[in-house]
Write a structure and sequence with these properties.
Arc Repressor Mutant, subunit A, 2 domains, 3-stranded antiparallel β-sheet
Length: 161
């Protein structure tokens, strides 16, 4: 007997899924471009700030691992944020060999503005959706990493396995 879950997946139209994935990519790209232009920070810099707001005191190597970039690139990005006084580096009190990157009060204010902008936009645009539709949207977003096969974060609270 055929697995009903597998049958549902096999019945998906590949072209439609590809179009939906491109639509998702385009939507996120356009949304992030608005933030990039509005706040004069690259997508990578915004990501680091949002990450540090959720897990302050990360090593550069951990930031690089989370972002799937080279340590050199993460260091360069941290330099840009430090120059703008959005982060600072401090020696780890537990292991003096480690340098931790922490978000400054100014960095937290920027993240709050970025996140307020996103929340206001989302809440403003969801008025036409029913409570059930909103629940489905939020549940899909919550499970998007699993759906797309992206590993949960080892560094961000509430995002690990």
């Amino acid at each position: 007997m055929r697995d009903p879950v597998r049958a549902r997946v096999d019945n998906l139209d590949r072209d439609k899924v590809e179009d939906l994935l491109f639509h998702l990519l385009r939507t996120f790209y356009q949304f992030e471009q608005i933030e990039v232009l509005e706040f004069d920070l690259s997508y990578e810099l915004i990501y680091i700030l949002k990450m540090l707001r959720r897990n302050d005191g990360m090593r550069i190597s951990d930031i690089a691992e989370e972002m799937k970039i080279k340590v050199f690139t993460a260091t360069r990005l941290a330099d840009q944020l430090e120059k703008r006084e959005l982060i600072k580096r401090k020696r780890d009190s537990v292991d003096k060999r480690n340098i931790l990157v922490t978000i400054t009060a100014k960095g937290k204010r920027i993240v709050k503005k970025i996140e307020d902008h996103a929340i206001n936009l989302i809440f403003g645009n969801m008025g036409s959706y029913s409570e059930d539709e909103i629940h489905v949207i939020f549940n899909t977003i919550k499970n998007l990493d699993h759906i797309l096969g992206v590993e949960p974060s080892k560094f961000l609270p509430g995002h690990s396995e």
